[in-house]
Amino acid sequence: MPAPDLDTDPWRVREPRVRPDALAVAESLFSLSNGYLGVRGTLDEVEPSEMRATYLSGVHETHPLSYPEGGYGHPEEGQAMITLADASPLRLLVDGIPLDVREIRAQVHERSLDLRAGTLDRRVRWTTPAGATVEVTSRRLVSLAERAVCAVRYQVRVVEGAAHVLLRSELAAGSVMPSGVDNDDPRVAPILDEAFELRARLAGATGGALVERTRRSGITVAAAVDHVVDAGRVDTTADDEHVVTTVAAHLRAGETLAVVKVAGYGWSYDAGSDSVLGEASAAVASALDLGWEGLLTAQRAVLDELWATADVEVDGDPELQQALRYAVFQLCCSAAGISGAPVGAKGLTGRGYSGHTFWDVEGFVVPALTLLRPRSAAELLRWRSATLDLARERARTLGMAGASFPWRTISGREVSAYWPASTAALHVNADIARAFWLYRNVTGADLDEVGGLAVLVETARMWTGVGAEDADGGWHLFGVTGPDEYTGVVDDNVFTNLMARRNLRWAADACRRQEARAAELGVDHAEIAAWRAAADAVHVPWDEGLGVHPMNAGFTSYREWPFKQDPDGAPVQDHHHYATFYRRQVLKQADLVQALWWCRAEFTAEQVARDLDYYEARTVRDSSLSAAVQSVVCAAAGHPDLALRYLRECALVDLRDVQGDTAKGLHLAAVGGAWLALAAGLGGLREDGEELELAPVLPATLSRTAYSVTWRGRVLRVETTREGTTVTLLRGEGPVAVVVDGAPLRVAADAPATAPLRTPDPLLPEPRQPAGREPRT
């Protein structure tokens, strides 16, 4: 599917000429979300559209999972995010002819997402067969201040001539598109396509409501809608599938029909229909009390605060500047109003991966939010810790101690039907533990504010239960899958082993700090000592001949991959069976290289240089997670220009549809990864020490970078130019200790700290990638 043609602008994503053939990608790019409620960026009119949808975080339906060969412990039910009652559709008829941009000859048709106003704006002008020139403008928002509210102001103006205008505004009952489900079982599509049963419908003078309940998961959802109309005749009707408000008017030249449509949502596992309906209706009433201008003002206020504390700037690359601000906008909006639910891999922008959340949310989204929007990070961590009992239950099913968190889920239960890439990926548990530990280190908050101590304890217990000690005292993990999904079920994956070591030490340190609370969890001194002993004995494979770390035991002796067989850059998994590439030296994504970042203390500078060089030549980046990791490590290894190329690929993954699947929703881990690639890559930011560390580098084509970071209650601004790096305290009590290139600095409110810019001195030349797999910028 082609991507839309976009203008480059520092504060807007603008499509100057809307192309119907590019709608699928544009609908994802122009999605609006607040973490609780999300609306795809469809055109206002019902047709054309590729995937019209409104979502609520956590609302899903279950469906059976089918296995050609069954096995003990396989999940029996899948989960899928479902499309709710949708308040976005409008149908406009002018002199009886519907507005369909495929049929009219538009003189102007443009859309833009305003990153400071938080609105999706549209303008279309055409001349009707009767000779009237008509212009439609709309402005849509998903409120960042009133989390259950979305609204649109739709205006029809006759520029020349006269026209009879009829606007049909719909609230359409929830349903899904079967093609959006990651499951080809023929039983699944009918279940999800009829996920809802109607519980109530209402119609008033200018709006109405629908209340529905999912048939299997038992979730009640209510959607209410109302309209403010400045002219015309208004009528509302309702049936089992729609609430329809119709507005009609005859307009002469210069006259305008304007309608403000406000929708409110609510959902619950437990509450009855009346209660959930009351919640949705109250959301509408609150929005109407604010009024359209009040909603816009509140939206702008939230975003003014965001940009005051989280703006990012790059001088010398306008396209990257736009992409990074877009990433910050979508990242922070994805969790702004979230509560009691996860952020999925696509957020609320599309149904890719069936709406599931994965480890990459804790790996990339939560750490970025921790440094930008710690309250949002805390909500995501509280959701994860609330699923701990389900993780304990899963561990018991697998014959493990402690807790084993799912590879993919919505509710907290494992729903992956492919165990080599899911159940075997035990690193998920350490990735989640890392997110809790980083949150505590960055914010200074008590771990138990987000349920973190219990998570660290139970994941540590899992590791000691599955680890094996050899005759020489070495500690091993057998039969695991690391981050790379092209190398499955191996022994001693270095990333997994080192992350397990960190998890064990984090748990031991946390229990020492909170002995009374640890005792409540059944932790004693002997268990802590066992954790430390296992961590100290972790085996890390090493290839003495090559002078590199094998990604897992024996990896460097696997056969090399014939990269010339894939000259067009197509994903390896689309053209070769897993049996072909599981034991070859080809990586879907960074794995050992990710350990170079997340477990940096375990490697010398020479090891980083040699490992990076080795794995760059074998990584094809068929996963959108990889570019951010490679960007960070390339910068650390003294290759800022290559780091910038990877940063660009990551930041532009959706705006350019780099992976070719943005139509299914945004890549939120890459969105978070783009900010991390700037701050942790070019900025050299490390948040895992007692003091904030920076090691900035500046690529040849950039003259300046600047970003903000929240560190232990203070907001710092880090600016790097050729002259050096300046750290400024924007908010909070000072002073703050910061380490720049190993030198301790003191930053106070009235005394920014400065340090000269170092010149990178790489140990090896810039690494090469497989043919055709260079960074896609």
Strand-residue proportion: 15-25%
Mean pLDDT figure: 95
Q: Give the number of DSSP strands.
A: 31
What order do the strands of the largest sheet run in, or round the barrel if closed?
Answer: 1-9-10-11-12-19-16-15-14
Q: What is the first-to-last residue Cα distance?
A: 19 Å
* SS element count, helices: 18
Q: What structural class do you assign from the helix and strand content?
A: alpha+beta
Main beta-sheet strand count, sense and barrel state: 9 strands, antiparallel
Tell the overall outline: globular
Uncertain stretches? 177-181
Work out the radius of gyration.
27 Å
Helix content: 25-40%
Describe the structure in your own words:
By secondary structure, the chain is an alpha+beta fold. The longest helix has 38 residues, at 273-310. The protein has 18 helices and 31 strands.
In short:
The protein contains 18 helices and 31 strands. By secondary structure, the protein is of the alpha+beta class.
Notable features of this structure?
5-stranded antiparallel β-sheet, 777 residues, single chain
Topology:
Layout: E1 12-15, H1 23-29, E2 32-33, E3 37-39, E4 54-56, E5 60-64, E6 77-81, E7 90-94, E8 97-98, E9 108-114, E10 119-127, E11 133-142, E12 149-160, E13 162-172, H2 188-193, E14 196-203, E15 207-214, E16 220-229, E17 233-238, E18 242-252, E19 256-268, H3 273-310, E20 312-315, H4 318-333, H5 359-372, H6 374-386, H7 388-397, H8 427-443, H9 452-466, E21 468-469, E22 475-476, H10 494-513, H11 515-520, H12 525-536, E23 559-560, H13 578-581, E24 584-585, H14 592-598, H15 605-616, H16 626-636, H17 640-651, H18 668-682, E25 692-694, E26 704-711, E27 714-721, E28 724-731, E29 736-740, E30 743-747, E31 753-755
Parallel strand pairs: 23-24, 25-29
Antiparallel strand pairs: 1-9, 2-3, 3-4, 5-6, 7-8, 7-13, 9-10, 10-11, 11-12, 12-19, 13-18, 14-15, 15-16, 16-19, 17-18, 20-26, 21-22, 26-27, 27-28, 28-31, 29-30
